Amino acid sequence: MTPHGTLYLLPVPLSEAPEALLTLSPRLLDRFRQLSFFVVETPKTARRLLKRIDHPLPIAQLTMSPLPQEATMAQLESLLALLRQGHSLGLLSDAGCPAIADPGARLVNAAHATGFRVVPETGPSSLLLGLMASGLEGQRFTFHGYLPVPEMARNARLIELEKRSRAHQETQSFIETPYRNEALFASLCRTLHPTTQLCVARDLTGPQEWIRTASVSEWRHRPPPDLHHFPTLFLFLAHSSGRSG
């Protein structure tokens, strides 16, 4: 009987800058090169990465199955069928660790439910790098993914998260589509209490990396950072003595 394959969770660089490849360990690069079946967020992005790391097989011979944002059970089952056939799969996102803020978590859950082996590999994670560099509370923290896009809904959510941060002394973190970064930053400065500590972590591990933590009051009195088109993580921590402003 053919043994079942393994689902490997493969982190990828956070930036497409050449130096970002240095964030991938030799062990992780070896794992990429050993696999010929991949489940990916965007095939074009995955092909470009595999070419950059000198995968030993021609790119045309690699199987890259896209994972839809709202994958159906039938689509998940078709991917698990590869594991049943004995093929190991590499799951990768467009940037950073798979299954965090992307649809890969559903495939991982389905693999566990079916009894397949799941192996996470170590690599760059913007969430952990940003938290490490923020100086904010690192024992209690929550990542919220994307906040609402409409301004009123976004501001209401920020007020809610600030209350939660204050009550539990918990760091709140989230991301945004790069072209909306500046609108989100403006909302943060307008909505949060002046004493709340806000960290902006731009282009982590990339050539334009820039990380700064300051009070909202300080942010309001300095020129806004250049965040347009840069992947950015936002984090904040409200002081227990502050009040929503």
Could you explain how this protein is built, in words?
The structure is a single chain. This protein has helices spanning 26-34, 43-52, 73-84, 104-114, 126-134, 151-168, 181-191, 216-220; strands at 6-9, 37-40, 63-66, 89-92, 117-120, 141-146, 171-175, 197-202, 210-215, 232-237. The chain is elongated, with a radius of gyration of 20 Å. Helix content is 35%, strand content 20%.
Secondary-structure blueprint:
Blueprint lengths: L5 E4 L16 H9 L2 E4 L2 H10 L10 E4 L6 H12 L4 E4 L11 H11 L2 E4 L5 H9 L6 E6 L4 H18 L2 E5 L5 H11 L5 E6 L7 E6 H5 L11 E6 L8
Parallel strand pairs: 1-4, 1-5, 2-3, 2-4, 6-7
Antiparallel strand pairs: 7-10, 8-9, 8-10
Helix pairs in contact: 3-4, 6-7
What is the CATH homology-level superfamily of the largest domain?
Tetrapyrrole methylase, N-terminal domain
Q: Which sequence of SSEs, written as H and E, runs from N to C?
A: EHEHEHEHEHEHEHEEHE
What top-tier CATH class of the largest domain fits best? Alpha Beta
Distance between the termini: 65 Å
Number of helices: 8
Multimerization status: single chain
- Total domain modules: 2
In helices, the fraction of residues equals 25-40%
How much of the sequence lies in strands comes to 15-25%
Radius of gyration over alpha carbons? 20 Å
Could you tell me the mean pLDDT? 93
CATH architecture of the largest domain: 3-Layer(aba) Sandwich
Reported for the largest beta sheet, the result is:
5 strands, parallel
Weakly predicted, low-confidence segments = none
Per DSSP E runs of 2 or more residues, the count of β-strands stands at: 10
